[in-house]
Amino acid sequence: MKILVTVKRVIDYNVKVRVKPDHSDVDLANVKMAMNPFCEIAVEEAVRLKEAGLATEILAVSVGPKACQEQIRTALALGADRGIHIETEDFPESLEVARLLAKVVEAERPELIITGKQSIDSDNNQTGQMLAALLDLPQGTFASALKLADGRVEVTREIDGGLQTLSLSLPAVVTTDLRLNEPRYASLPNIMKAKKKPLEVRTPAELGVQPRAHTRLLKVEAPAERKGGIKVASIDELVEKLKNEAKVI
Amino acid sequence: MAILIIAEHDDRTLKSATLNAVTAAAQIGAELHLLVAGRDCRAAAGQAARIPGLAKVLLADDASLAQQLAEKVSPLVVELAKDYSHIVAPATTSGKNLLPRVAALLGVAQLSEVIGVESTDTFRRPIYAGNAIATVQSLDSVKVLTVRGSAFEPAPAEGGGTPIESIHFAGDAGDSARFVGEQVAVSERPELSSARIVVSGGRGLGSGESFALLERLADKLGAAVGASRAAVDAGFVPNDRQVGQTGKIVAPDLYIAVGISGAIQHLAGMKESKVIVAINKDEEAPIFQVADYGLVADLFEAIPELERKL
Ligand SMILES: Cc1cc2nc3c(=O)[nH]c(=O)nc-3n(C[C@H](O)[C@H](O)[C@H](O)COP(=O)(O)OP(=O)(O)OC[C@H]3O[C@@H](n4cnc5c(N)ncnc54)[C@H](O)[C@@H]3O)c2cc1C
Questions:
Q1: How many domains in chain B?
Q2: Which residues does FAD bind (chain B) (predicted)?
Q3: What pLDDT does B172 receive?
């Protein structure tokens, strides 16, 4: 079975983003970039399914500017077999990314599509669900476990009240949550080998999609800063402050 | 045109997240309709009808809508959508599961986790773990949004007498997505997302057993118990306790962070709390930068003492 995983280039999760002084956007100049952590989990899951003999081929797809090829190479170093980069000037909105991915899915016919549940830049949590909708496929979002059996996939989902398990026919779209697995690091030999793996570049026009804007970003601001508080010396002082100053207990 | 709000419920009871979504929708300003879709969900619709300020409660009760699978509910919402300018759902795991699917079927964008309504087409939402706030104008004909509960006061649950209109929906019975089971934590404590006080524990707790210390403190305060990702990953507590960028967003009157370092992903879920207390043995821990009251102490001594002295 063929698995398609999506990988997005985002700000490194350890970096605290800054807003541009003119409030037009966040400032990503000279900021460390990396693969979105939820996409790493998606790649890892696909690689484990291949190692378990349940998958035969892993295709990693990324949408965005040329630099996204770095993240595709990382996916290849982690164990993906082949990459497709859909090159766009900027990062299109989720629906447009889903429309582009849908074209790749139609051409490649994977049986399982694994995406991250959200990217840590836009924090949208949409692309997987939108892709499933466009292809009329079942979706298993926020997955913390995944099991293939009898031509279906059983997905355990992290929901507000606890866990929910669904059984989905294949092909299906699964989006990863944090506890699905712990991604490995790429080894140096694998990073070298990844350089030789095939990476195809496509344009939206070739795929017959013209990304549209659905929203206009009017302004980006820093959140209100919390004023630093005080240190208390003892539990007695803490209780006194909570009762008499903050009046919350 | 009216606004369609998707109710959060489990057929029997309406969930409080619905009330925050009603407040957000009311700020957009138009006639409000609330959709209760499920199987045998008349009880939830009855509770919805008591919310003041709604023009209509739509009840879609069909076997195909059991467990409200996104594959089954989205065609219903799409069918209704032509009569609405906005479709609003709480940014809960069910809202986040359903609404992007609806938006894609409608060919429009979805705005996630809206925290402010500027006008009928312009909204504010956090990005980058809440380290930036974007003001975004929607250019689509139908605006589809999930709204963050902690940013909107809950609407009153009682006092209204809205008519319930049953809608006929014969859903697709296909089994491309099939419900297998659910493990839902039952707790006597208040719900994490709406509790007035939250006591959260992190890796510093060291074990699941140690969380009993926090639970005793929480019970004394009438608080909910939350956790950092590290505590959930380590298996100390179940996943539904995780507070943060990719877990639950809370903004209680009082948040007590115990043995939590204060990573940006955790802060994203709690820094709107009114009063923050941090108890950590490392005086350099970043959590102290957002805490109103910080105590540098070993939690295993501090927590029992705090419980005793309340
Ligand atoms: C994609 C992604 C998403 C994430 N989403 C979330 C999220 O939603 N929520 C979240 O919380 N995290 C999230 N994280 C993880 C986050 O980056 C941190 O790793 C996590 O919050 C750390 O948890 P912690 O503070 O409990 O553990 P640590 O950072 O290990 O801190 C433990 C703290 O306990 C203190 N301590 C230890 N022993 C004691 C003692 N005896 N008494 C007092 N203090 C003690 C230590 O001084 C330390 O400060 C995410 C990470 C990624 C990459």
A1: 2
A2: 203, 228-229, 242-246, 259-266, 280
A3: 84
Q: Which two tokens stand for residue B255?
A: 């948040």
Mutate which of A17, A164, A182, A247 to disrupt the B interface (most B C-beta within 10 Å)?
A164
A200 pairs with which residues across the strands? A84
Ligand 1 centroid distance, CA of B229 (Å): 6
Q: For the segment B47-74, what is each residue's pLDDT rounded down to a tens digit? A: 999 999 999 999 999 999 999 999 999 9
Cα B141 from Cα B106, distance rounded (Å)? 10
Cis-peptide into B238, omega within 30 deg: no
Report the pLDDT averaged over residues A134-152.
97
pLDDT, tens digit, 9 for 90 and up, residues B167-192:
999 888 899 999 999 999 888 999 99
Is residue A249, in this structure, part of any structural domain at all?
no
Asked if this assembly's ipTM is beyond 0.95, the reply is yes
- The band of A226, judged by pLDDT with boundaries at 50, 70 and 90, is confident
Which amino acid is located at A113 in the chain? I
Which amino acid is present at B293?
A: Y
What DSSP element (H or E) covers A10?
strand A9-11
**How far is residue B195's CA from residue A49's CA, in Å, rounded to a whole number?**
41
- A228 pLDDT exceeds 90? no
B203 with B293, same domain: the answer is yes
Gap between the Cα atoms of B137 and B242, Å rounded:
31
Clarify whether residues B13 and B158 are in a common domain.
Answer: yes
Structure tokens at A147: 């099991």
| CATH value at residue B125 | 3.40.50.620
Question: What is the C-alpha to C-alpha distance for residues A106 and A113, in angstroms, rounded to an integer?
Answer: 12
DSSP states along B252-302: -SEEEEES----HHHHTTTTT-SEEEEEES-TT-GGGGT-SEEEES-HHHH
Of B116, B185, B194, residue with least CA distance to B157: B194
Domain that holds residue A143: 2-244
Report yes or no on B183 lying in a domain. no
Bridge partner residues of A172 (DSSP): A112
- Please, how many CA atoms are within 13 Å of residue B13, restricted to the half-sphere of its CB? 4
In the structure, what pLDDT confidence band is assigned to residue A176 with cuts at 50, 70 and 90? very high
Q: Are B244 and B266 in contact (CB under 8 A)?
A: yes
- Residue B259 annotated as binding? yes
Q: Which residue(s) pair with B111 in the sheet?
A: B145
Residue at which a domain ends, from B166, B183, B207: B166
- Number of domains comprising chain A: 1
Note whether B305 contacts A: Cβ–Cβ < 8 A.
yes
Residues B90-119: tens digit of each pLDDT: 999 999 999 999 999 999 999 999 999 999
Residues paired with residue B36 on neighbouring β-strands, in sequence order: B59
B285 lines ligand 1 (CB under 6 A): yes
Distance from residue B265's CA to the centre of ligand 1 (Å): 9
